[in-house]
Amino acid sequence: MKKQIEGLLAEALAALHAQFPQIVMPETRVERARDPRHGDFATNAALLLAKPAGMNPRELAERIVALLPQSEMIESVSIAGPGFINFRLGKRAFEEETAAILAQGEAYGRSELGAGRRVLLEFVSANPTGPLHVGHGRHAAYGASVGNLLEATGYRVHREYYVNDAGRQMDILAASVWLRYLEAFGAQFAFPANGYRGGYIQPIADKLVAREHDRLRRPVEDVFANLPPDAPEGDKDEYIDAVVARMRELLGDADYRAVHGLGLDEILADIRDDLADFGVTFDEWFPERSLTDLGLVAECIDRLKSDGHAYEKEGALWFRASELGDEKDRVLVRDNGQTTYIASDIAYHLGKRQRGHDVLLDILGADHHGYVARVRAGLEAMGEPPDSLEVRLVQFAILYRGGEKVQMSTRSGEFVTLRELREEVGNDAARLFYVLRSNEQHLDFDLELAKSRSNENPVYYIQYAHARVRSVFRQLVEKDLPWSTADGIAQLHRLSSDHERVLMATLGRFPEVVELSAANRAPQNVVHYLRELAQDFHTWYNAETFLVDDAALRAARLALAEATRQVIANGLALVGVNAPESM
Predict the structure, then answer these.
(1) 370 located within any domain
(2) Which stretches within 20-160 are classed as H helix?
């Protein structure tokens, strides 16, 4: 409906331009009216054009209104305030939009706004050091929903998980697995304070035992001899690093890599399965180590040096990031010759651009505030547009059980996994609850509400509207009453109640909601819209009888009910939630 108003306004402005050729016409802007009493849509075109036209805004608004083509879609046009033009839609407009929903089906709400631009959407990317917890679940639900919205609006989306398979955390995981392996042969020792203590480590150690038997067994005294003290007397980070170094020394590189690889493969497989069961899939799982294998890190460092963006200081190589918008310069290569994660980040994003992606959309944790400036600086230094990078930060999800906050820690093992959450509340409730609020806001996940079958539970309330329509059509079959989409569309003019007009108006907003939600990376807007739509439907359902004796009226009401069901199904699909046949 909005596009139809925009088309009519564009025609009027084209006619106005013929009268005032000196005026550069602005892009047609039509918005929903802030106050429904003034109409359905409004435009400030007269205010924008008044000065260059040398006319009073209200006088110019009157001229624009006079140039508007006649249309059965518009009931009335009025001018308000200093020159706003308000449009009130006619009954025919709502009927045609309802017919469009029925004709387009699953395609209703989709558009070509993105014009095929390529988006590399990176999300979740949790370190493969343990099962996904409820915090990761929010990243997964949000990222998957944003990807769906972008595809629905004409973007080409490549979903990617960046696998942090290199670095210190993976070394600690390997050491944790090996220490549990040693315990299987009777070794007794205090497990490192900074090791991974969760129960998920034991099955991996058991697999190592089954595969290697006692071949990797080493005497406990050799493992822990002359190590610095662990916490609380000493530094837990220094201690675990010493354990890792000792493990490397005692096993040798090949066997160390074998333990490291087993831990990585087992946990990554669990993450893949968990996400797939959650309805979240990726086009690519990109391993961090491939950056080195492909030579991207070395390429970035060489280019930064040759282009004057790097300098040496105190034995380290530094990136002049502060000259490109970052708050300070960053170390690329430490004095011991090891490259930093900043070098890898720049290389990774350069690789994304080299793969042909226009928009690099990263969904990261709330603690990555400083990430944007340094990666954009790196892209600019590489000759890439810095604004090609877009970062959306996701705040924490806090789980409440019985009104009490649940504590989580991936090292201690005292955490609730995503899989456990899904088993308790179900995928649908988890997916919808995760995107109830903006990603920039903290999310309190109420387990009891998510499991309840009440109108206060948004997933139940929305799904129930869909199921109610299906129930009506099952009754239609049971009563052997005829109905077809064509018959329903032909009789839409029979709908006349206030409830029906409100419902049709809400249905017609869906394409706008999808476009705005995609543009703002805001799937919560889809959820809020669906709740409103469900409310309008339930109100209508409770006020009217659908299977009336009047065949024409029955056909019309069933058409509106089916259109509502279709929009609910389309909206739920965008946020990864099922539309049930019955409840």
Answers:
(1) no
(2) 45-53, 57-67, 91-104, 134-152
